[in-house]
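Annotators were shown the component list below and the corresponding predicted structure, then asked to write short factual statements about the assembly.
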Amino acid sequence: MEKEATSDTAVAELPTPAAPRQTITRVARAVTIREPASTLYRFWRDLERLPEIINHPAEIRRVSRTESHWRVSGPLGDVEWTAEIVRDEPGRLIGWQTRHDSSVDITGQIEFLPAPGDEGTEVIVSLSYDPPGGKLGATVAKFTRDSADSQIYDALKRFKALIEAGEIPTIKGQAVGGPQRPRKGEK
Amino acid sequence: MKALVWMGKKKVEVQEVEDPKILNPRDCIVKVTSTAICGSDIHLYDGYIPSMEKGDILGHEFMGEVVEVGPQVKKTKVGDRVVVPFTISCGHCTHCLRQQFSCCDNTNPNWQLAETLMGYSPAGLFGYSHMTGGYAGGQAQYVRVPHADVGPLKIENDLPDDKVLFLSDIYPTGYMAAENCNIVPGESVVAVWGCGPVGQFAIRSAFILGAAKVIAIDSVPERRRLAEQAGAITLDSGDDVMEELKALTGGRGPDASIDAVGMEAHGSAYDQIKQTLKLETDRPYALRQAMRCTRKGGTLSVPGVYGGLLDKIPFGAAMNKGLTFRMGQTDMQKYMAPLFRLIEEKKIDPSVVITHRIPLSRAAEAYPLFIEKRDGCIKVVLDPAA
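Structure shown to annotators:
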């Protein structure tokens, strides 16, 4: 899936930010997950397990029925925002927007669309955002895996593995030989 | 524990490393009782598979006893005697449910790297570079096995390790290669390039599936002899293979061809130089010959491992003759149980390929022995206890 190639309609449906800026970046990523849309929607709407699929230290705190406070550690330090759900179509779509007093300006949505045959559900996330550190931050982030695009894609892949396989694959902490780790008995 | 560790091109050593731990709730730990060196390990040893890191533990053909299970493991129990497939599969994604286990969506933690190289990421593999997950391998005394209820096959009889160990890779791999040939019982002629272990199992499986004739091609006399013992007609790679195959098939050519050689074929100085200069990653000499030799409308089955980019592929021959290509890493979990039954029924004895038994502690010496085919070496089994 090429960046931004997912669906123009998905991006076009986003609520327009109050004051469009030059530095707005748009990303869209998709995965197909073998579960009904309602289950996947609930996972995202409940928020509780979302930190598990974010490959960075993340804290998500529910503030009200439609608002949540997020803190994610990224390449430029902690980024915090308060997100407000502005569209909620159970089993189909969640759209959100950061509040004006947040340190970042993000408009996003996640859609759950039926996939053909027995494939399950197509999950599409699209974000429009003003990267931390403005244009310079985006330029820096572009060259790292921590850019919003790869973070979203990574989160979607981890979401898929968690839902389908029950766990996210890892080799962190496995047995390795030198020089990756000191040999047994050595410091 | 002791483990065989990759330390760079043509450099492996047995090291004392930490024992593996349960990392995910569906993992188990297997105490290895038998493990083997695979022909595809040569590609790692020779440095032709990208994304290896010094310190990686090799090996993907192993069996043993389950000594620990994670909290979400339901079926597999401590004490079970199991053969572990080389592919790691979740059992729940669309590909697994379609029995395309080697294409599992959810077992490669390094899927980004695989997507960059291949477009989409196949399943994680034991001990086979970081683009397929970087999982620590089985040439070790203990191994962490993810998705313990999906992969390992429980062995509940007293068949010795030698007879069932190769259910971990090469027997199912040879069998799937033969199955991919669409053999018409009593009619099909199958040509097999390479009489190494996978070739031997492909030959035997082709006969089990009803092939009328199997013609096997290899340059090594003792490997040809082993193929002849299974009933194959053999050709020396140095022969005019095309003309010999025509003569043996009434001028039609083989209905199906199997490339059981893969990316480090011998016979072409051109490829040796280009691979050395990194102008191509693979030496597809056997593949080219198989593409030219397969009959019109025939099938080309590729169990041999390829890593990347191939040069001078006679695609025109394939297109104009209307060949069908079948290939892939083996969908292990689909084949292990039925092939185990063939072993129990004595339809096949996988242990015939074993020529050498070497202690794990001396595994580093076994690699050059196997690669140079010294001392009639066809298959090395390592004893992890020694």
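Statements collected:
1. Chain B touches chain A through 47 residues (CB under 8 Å).
2. The first strand of chain B starts at residue 2 and ends at 6.
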